[in-house]
Amino acid sequence: MISFSIRNLKVFFKDRTSVFFSLLAVFIIIGLYALFLGDVWTSSFEGLTGVRYLMDSWIMAGLLAVTSVTTTMGAYGIMVDDKAKKINKDFIASPVRTRSIVGGYVTGAIIVGIIMSFVACALAEIYVISNGGRLMDIFTFIKVSGLIILSTITSSSIIFFVVSFFKSNNAFATASTIIGTVIGFLTGIYLPIGQLPSGVQWVIKVFPVSHAASLFRQVMMEDPISRTFAEAPAESVANFEKLMGVKLFFGDTAASPLVSILILVVTAAIFYMLAIFNVSRKTR
């Protein structure tokens, strides 16, 4: 399994086009935010201090949740390409066990997702600092690192299940385009969850990656929120967190970090089992 994972990593990183397109959503979001979204959201909170630092942290936190999806999607393209070129039949006919092959694809995708997420994190920090923000401290970085690993594992499970149905590169490319477009809305990057209709809000709240975005925001926005709302009442902070999706509210109750983590863990377990069942069924 380890050797097969290394093979997949070499194939992925050797193809610079795949690496670029796996980060394309990151570049698009940063570009849109730098060009006009940043000014729009900053002007919405005029009168508060440190608003730019606050909103930069908000968008970059959501960016990390998106990266865990798009980069693992790019990594699983190797599995689809192997199917399209019938290379997978050679693997199945070899003495290598099917679970080792599947494990190689999954492990490779997770490693790619983690590496590229840290790259996105570095780019995000550079952007925040360049606009007058502060570099995250070591404790915040440790928390963010843990969330990167957790969100990547969860996103990888969902994408693995989706990709297990594809046999052609065209179908995969179409799905990648759709997911890359929709994921920004489902994580509340293009429009904050509080500005969406209630029905759409519920869709976002039950979408597991939204909980990853919420966790990233709670960690990365802890310092800017404390600075911007230093003299504001607790109600103002709660309203801001509800509007911007820093915390996901079900009624008047906010989902605790533990609940969001459990949702991610359970989601990963369920989708990995479904994906493995689907792959095993097709190889019989």
Helices and strands in order, then pairings?
Elements: H1 2-14, H2 16-22, H3 24-43, H4 51-84, H5 87-93, H6 98-130, H7 138-163, H8 169-186, H9 198-206, H10 208-220, H11 222-228, H12 234-244, E1 249-250, E2 253-254, H13 257-282
Antiparallel strand pairs: 1-2
Helix pairs in contact: 1-6, 2-4, 3-4, 4-6, 4-7, 4-8, 4-10, 6-7, 7-10, 7-13, 10-13
What features would you highlight for this structure?
284 residues, mainly alpha, two-stranded antiparallel ribbon, 79% helix
Brief overview, please?
The protein has 284 residues and is mostly helical. The chain contains 13 helices and two strands, in the order ααααααααααααββα. 79% of the residues lie in helices and 1% in strands.
Describe the structure.
- With 284 residues, the protein is an all-alpha fold.
- It has one domain (2-282).
- It is 79% helix and 1% strand.
- The protein has 13 helices and 2 strands, in the order H-H-H-H-H-H-H-H-H-H-H-H-E-E-H.
- It has helices at residues 2-14, 16-22, 24-43, 51-84, 87-93, 98-130, 138-163, 169-186, 198-206, 208-220, 222-228, 234-244, 257-282; strands at residues 249-250, 253-254.
- The chain has a two-stranded antiparallel sheet.
- A hairpin with a 2-residue loop joins strand 1 (249-250) and strand 2 (253-254).
- Helix 4 packs antiparallel against helix 6.
- The longest helix is centred in the first third of the chain and has 34 residues, at 51-84.
- The two termini are 20 Å apart.
- 40% of the residues are buried.
- The mean pLDDT is 85.
